[in-house]
């Protein structure tokens, strides 16, 4: 079938390819939806988002163990559970779209983890909160972009998560202003 689709696209152009795909989808041909249901940016977002969910769970565990104040330890517990739940919402979205997500952190995220396990205890809370403030700005920017996706599943997931991310950001900023 791939060969025929490629021939149609080469001979008749993209318009004919779109018409053919629409016919195949209308006829219930499965497998075609996965190939065309998400863009590269949607796939990249899903792969990035799982890294964030796993990393934030690990950061929560590190804060539970290393934080000097109860407020930061509680934040760690919250982050662990919050991002565990977010991961459980993300994986089915990716699965429906045919995107296999990793269970492991990237080398970049592993370096962040190692850094936080080696920060002197006296500086941990301040460094942890500062890191989370920056991370949440970054998370929200990416989720806002994903909320504009043409893919309805990606758009809905990102939009739903944005509300929680903004609440989390407020919680973290409150701790930052308290000087934790």
Write the layout of secondary structure elements.
Layout: H1 2-12, H2 14-26, H3 32-36, H4 40-66, H5 70-96, H6 107-118, H7 121-146, H8 152-178
Helix pairs in contact: 1-2, 4-5, 4-6, 4-7, 5-8, 7-8
List keywords for this structure.
180 residues; mainly alpha; 8 helices; globular; disordered N terminus
Tell me what the structure shows.
- It contains 8 helices and no strands.
- It is mainly alpha-helical and 180 residues long.
- α1 packs antiparallel against α2, α4 packs antiparallel against α5 and α7 packs antiparallel against α8.
- The protein is globular, with a radius of gyration of 21 Å.
- The N terminus is likely disordered.
Strand content: under 5%
**Count of distinct strands:** 0
What is the share of helical residues? over 70%
Total number of helical segments?
A: 8
The Cα radius of gyration reads 21 Å
Could you give a short description of this structure?
The protein is mostly helical.
């Amino acid at each position: 079938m791939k060969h025929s689709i490629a021939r149609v696209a080469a001979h008749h152009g993209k318009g004919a390819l779109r018409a053919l795909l629409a016919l195949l989808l209308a006829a219930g041909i499965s497998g075609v939806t996965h190939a065309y249901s998400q863009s590269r940016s949607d796939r990249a977002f899903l792969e990035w988002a799982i890294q964030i969910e796993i990393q934030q769970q690990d950061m929560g565990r590190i804060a539970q163990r290393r934080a000097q104040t109860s407020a930061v330890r509680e934040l760690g517990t919250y982050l662990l559970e919050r991002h565990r739940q977010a991961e459980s919402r993300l994986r089915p979205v990716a699965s429906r779209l045919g995107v296999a997500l990793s269970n492991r952190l990237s080398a970049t995220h592993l370096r962040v983890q190692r850094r936080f396990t080696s920060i002197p205890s006296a500086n941990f809370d301040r460094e942890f909160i500062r890191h989370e403030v920056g991370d949440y700005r970054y998370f929200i920017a990416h989720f806002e972009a994903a909320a504009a996706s043409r893919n309805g599943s990606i758009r809905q997931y990102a939009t739903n998560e944005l509300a929680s991310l903004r609440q989390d950001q407020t919680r973290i900023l409150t701790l930052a202003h308290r000087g934790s």
